[in-house]
Amino acid sequence: MNEKKSRRKYIFIAGGVMSGVGKGVASASLGAILKARGLSVTAVKIDPYINVDAGTMNPVEHGEVFVTVDGDETDQDIGNYERFLDEDIFKINYMTTGRVYLSVIERERALGYHGKTVEVVPHVPQEVIARIEKAAEYHDADVTVIEIGGTVGEYQNILFLEAVRMMQLDCPANVLIGLVSYLPIPGNLGEMKTKPTQYAVRTLNGTGLQPDFIIARASLPLDEPRKKKIAVNCSMDARDIVSAPDVDSIYRVPRNFENEGIADRIIEKLGLKTKKVDLQHWDDLLNRIDHPDGEVRIGIVSKYTSSGNFSLSDAYLSVIESVRHAAWHLKLKPEIIWLDAEALEKSDEPLRVHDIQALIIPGGFGKRGTEGKINAITFAREKNVPFLGLCLGMQLAMVEYARNVMNLRGAHTTEIEKEAENPVISLMNEQGERMKNKDYGGTMRLGHFPCEIAKWSKAEEAYGKNKVMERHRHRYEGNPKYYEDFEQAGLRLCGMSPDRTLVEMIELPNHPFFVGSQFHPEYQSRPFRPHPLFVGLLKAGMQK
Ligand code: GLN
After folding, report:
1. Do residues 182 and 197 touch, judged by C-beta distance below 8 A?
2. Catalytic site residue 520?
3. Looking at residue 5, what is its pLDDT?
4. Residues 391, 415, 451, 472: which is the catalytic one?
5. Which atom of ligand 1 is nearest to the CA of 444?
6. What is the reported pLDDT for 2?
7. Model pTM greater than 0.85?
8. How far is CA 245 from the centre of its chain?
9. 148-184: pLDDT as tens digits
10. Which atom from ligand 1 is nearest to the alpha carbon of 393?
11. What is the 305 CA–ligand 1 centroid distance (Å)?
12. Considering 123, 325, 329, 520, which one is annotated as catalytic?
């Protein structure tokens, strides 16, 4: 690290015992309480799989694919960083094993190693370090929090831990390591056990690393005797063992961490000078969550549900968070009703029983469940239920309108009906060639693009402006041949790309709130800055 770099500090977060215990939220929360001291903070996510990005993964298996401003398709944790840090995160902040190896191999092919033998160690960890430092530099970050996916002891992330070791060796004063561990309470014992955490620390020691702090995830708070036990057995100070019990809302975690005093310990260890901590906005948020004035019932039509509730909510994470942010902003408690798209193919009964106040059709791919989504759209349109269609949700709203209002026989999107009689949604020009060549990875229309909003539209009313930037992830698009027909039939194409070739938003003027967007507003909603379209939807819902 040279002189300029050396003021930058790095906090690595590794997982112990098991994954899926909230390492992403822990990393984001740590970042948030450091930012609340006036530090500039960014976060990096390392995923140990071979996929170059998360774009080609099934959301049921992997959870939501998050999209950055600059069009990277990432793990959902990047979404948590953006929401907790209230900062945009870029491509440079995300790496996978595949991405790291790809650049090493491409550099080798371009003679970038000047004839040297290119080896797994040190060249791969060096590439990892270069990427981390570049992200820190790009964001001009005082502190960069780096989350290493997986758990210590597995083969997959060993090279990333080696990168941590090399960075620490180079500049020990600038690098800290936190272990997010899990403490089980076996039912038959009724006692919280620290042993798995002790083993995890030993495993980490085996890679040449000693944790500077441990975040002790458990269903209950960690008591003092157990903090001491971990401290003694793992050669640590008990003040560096953070109790992190389960919470009903992830947005409580920053406040809980602050109360544990961990940020003060971190800044002391890193020798940072900071302002006094100010968590007022976080406390205000918790206050709104805890003291709502009313409730709002939102139906979300879903199809990525096949392994139960856990992956269901994971696949639609940003949509759920957006609903929450908007509801809290309006001092409402959101109640989300999951509506199975395939069940809606048979009947709209589920829509009737729940008496929902607002309906969301989120993005998606492929045929399964589309007719159910279309039925739900008909219901919302005819029964004046406030409706928001996201990406595929907007495309299907156009299909529904074409079929049922414009009487266009066989209207469909060519994603589902290749030879549709009326292809109102079709593949964007440059996409045809890519599909033929099986060039699927990272080739959708990705990232943020401008959208111009029509005057006197519901969209304009919601946003309070006429030009917005929103994030996209799609291959299909409104077919220009039908634009005029739609407008004439009363569906307003209220948002367009500046060159007026692409439909970005649609709405129905004579409906309380019927809006569709080709983009994904959910990627830009933040707890302290709810997205206008979700706020507009819920406001209309409350009038119903
Ligand atoms: N499958 C559609 C497309 O590719 C919609 C994508 C989405 O909803 N993100 O255009």
Report:
1. yes
2. yes
3. 56
4. 391
5. 4
6. 52
7. yes
8. 22
9. 999 999 999 999 999 999 999 999 999 999 999 999 9
10. 8
11. 18
12. 520
Question: Which residue out of 57, 395, 427 has the highest number of ligand 1 atoms within 8 Å of its CB and is therefore the one to mutate?
Answer: 395
Count of residues in the chain: 544
SS (H, E, C) 27-86: HHHHHHHHHCCCCCEEEEEEECCCCCCHHHCCHHHHCCCEECCCCCEECCHHHHHHHHHC
**Pick the residue with more confidence: 190 or 401?**
401
Q: Are strands 411-413 and 422-427 parallel, antiparallel or unpaired?
A: parallel
Among 424, 400, 421, residue whose Cα is nearest residue 348: 400
Q: How far apart are the C-alpha atoms of 62 and 324, rounded to whole Å?
A: 22
431-481 pLDDT, tens digit each: 888 888 888 888 899 999 999 999 999 999 999 999 999 999 999 999 999
- Ligand 1 binding pocket (C-beta < 6 A) is 363-365, 391-392, 415, 473-476
User: If you take atom 8 of ligand 1, which residue's CA is the nearest one?
Assistant: 363
- Point out the ligand 1 atom lying closest to the alpha carbon of residue 473: 9
Q: 47-64: b or e for each residue (b if 16 or more CB lie within 10 Å)? A: bbeebbbbbebebbebbb
Write down the pLDDT at residue 175.
97
Contact assessment for residue 323 and residue 264, using Cβ atoms and an 8 Å cutoff: no
* 180 CA → ligand 1 middle, Å: 35
- Complete DSSP assignment for 216-234: EEESSPPPHHHHHHHHHHT
Nearest atom (ligand 1) to Cα of 362: 8
Chain centre distance of CA 139? 19
| Whether residue 212 has pLDDT greater than 60 | yes
167 CA from centroid of ligand 1 (Å): 41
* pLDDT tens track for 360-371: 999 999 999 999
Mean pLDDT over the full length of the chain: 94
Tokens of 109: 């092919």
Of the CA atoms within 13 Å of residue 115, those in its CB half-sphere come to 0
Summarize pLDDT for 520-538 with one digit per residue, the tens.
999 999 999 999 999 999 9
* CB neighbours of residue 116 within 10 Å: 9
Is residue 522 part of the annotated active site? The answer reads: yes
Residues 6 or more apart in contact with residue 327 via CB below 8 angstroms: 292, 296, 333, 334, 538
pLDDT for residue 307 is more than 60: no
CA of 91 to the centre of ligand 1 (A): 21
Nearest CA to ligand 1 atom 3: 474
Instruction: Give the pLDDT band (50/70/90) at residue 311.
Output: very low
